[in-house]
Amino acid sequence: MSAAPAEQPLGGWPLIDEANRIMERLPGYRVEIIGGQILVSPPADGPHAQALTELMLPFLAAGLHGEEAKVLQAIGLWLTDGREDYAIPDLSLVDADLEDHHVENNCYDPVVFRLVLEVTSSNYKTDLRTKVTAYANAKVPVYVVVDRRHNRLHVLTDPAQDEYATHRVHAPGELVTLPESIGAKVTLDVAEILTAAGRQPEA
Questions:
Q1: In the sheet where 86-87 sits, what is the strand order?
Q2: How many other CB atoms are there within 10 angstroms of residue 70's CB atom?
Q3: Residues near 10 by Cβ (< 8 Å), separated by ≥ 6?
Q4: Whole-number Å distance between alpha carbons of 113 and 141
Q5: CA–CA gap between residue 203 and residue 123 (Å, rounded)
Q6: What is the Cα–Cα distance from 150 to 5, expressed in whole angstroms?
Q7: What is the CA radius of gyration of the chain?
Q8: Ramachandran sector of residue 76 (left: φ over 0; alpha: ψ -120 to 50; beta: rest)
Q9: Mind listing the pLDDT tens digit for each residue in 137-176?
Q10: What values do phi and psi take at 2, rounded to 5?
């Protein structure tokens, strides 16, 4: 999911307090702080949700939701490049001991995240640029983007400082096997995922 920036808080409120106030005013919206800026995402459309369901299936089939790992939607990831920064990936593969690594504000230490995944919405540049930097800085090993605007699947690996050293782009018709470092062999059918996701909604 992608986001639009919100205005900076007035009156001296800490960013995280202001983000929580926005969530209270806008139930169903996703609020994140990335690069010291509050980002607000509207509720997902139907195809966005269908794509996430389609994506969960191969992870579940590979046994990655059990005693060792969990496949979770919309779980908070505490970012390391800002005092109050956090992101909420659409889908995450995490170590099963997630609760032992709680930081604050319902967010967890990036050390437990094996993979994060985003399905683009109206502001696709957030997922393809801003979050690439954020997740790389947090050393999340694998970042997958379902790019509905360009009908592509991006797989980014080998985080190094503020970027991923490896960035592969896949088109419909390809089968993509993710790095086995995530804990099992998972192969994604790009055409199936992009068909479920539908075309990018207009901004």
A1: 4-5, 37-41, 30-34, 86-87, 76-78, 107-108
A2: 19
A3: none
A4: 8
A5: 7
A6: 22
A7: 16
A8: beta
A9: 999 999 999 999 999 999 999 999 889 999 999 999 999 9
A10: -115, 175
What does residue 80 show for φ and ψ, rounded to 5 degrees? Answer: -100, 0
Q: What is the DSSP string of the chain?
A: ---EEPPPPSTT--HHHHHHHHHHHSTT-EEEEETTEEEEEPPPPHHHHHHHHHHHHHHHHTT-SSSSEEEEES-EEE-SSSSS-EE--SEEEEETTGGGGB-STTEE-GGGEEEEEEE--S-HHIIIIIHHHHHHHTT-SEEEEEETTTTEEEEEEEEETTEEEEEEEE-TT-EEEPPGGGSS--EEEHHHHHHHH-SPPP-
Q: Which residues pair with 187 in a beta bridge?
A: 177
How many CA atoms does the CB half-sphere of 190 hold within 13 Å?
A: 21
Contact 134, 81 (CB under 8 A): yes
Cα 162 from Cα 140, distance rounded (Å): 11
pLDDT digits (tens, 9 = 90+) for 73-129: 999 999 987 689 999 999 999 999 999 999 999 999 999 999 999 999 877 889 999
Q: How many residues does the chain have?
A: 203
